[in-house]
Amino acid sequence: AKVKKSLPEMYAFSVCMWIKSSASPGMGTPFSYAVPGQANELVLIEWGNNPMEILINDKVWSWGGINDGKWHHICVTWTTRDGVWEAYQDGTQTGNGENLAPYHPIKPQGVLVLGQEQVRAGGGAALRVSAGLGARRVGWGSLAALSGNVIAWAEANIDIYGGATKGTFEACRQLN
Predict the structure, then answer these.
(1) Which secondary-structure segment (H or E) carries 74?
(2) Domains of the chain with CATH codes
(3) GO molecular function terms here (predicted)?
């Protein structure tokens, strides 16, 4: 899925999503943001038997995993100041650190893709897309309270490719 809107230049962010996976090994790439000259400007990925990783400008930090077939709420926060980051799963902090791409602003005018890593901005075959992509669903909320202030993952803002389907998400209802 390709998000129609690009990110502005950012010096800090929080990204949150509901995600479910029972893929093995690794769940693949919930989202990737690539800019010209940097395919890994901002990526959330879990591949092989590795833990979940966040990449900013090709710098990597890792923590835990979520491949238990249940819905989980994931949030990652980051600030360019000292590269401080925190990861949360279901409201509990599961990772944190510093020196993750410190003083590197997230560049604007890139391409945001849900469900696949990008080799270059906007395209290319992904090297680390796991076989479990079909088993994973990324949900986005339709309620105003769940919408982001930079990009809301609303249905109208997303183009679907490769046989994926769109659907609304209700956090209180278990989906198959």
Answers:
(1) strand 71-79
(2) 2-159 (2.60.120.200)
(3) metal ion binding
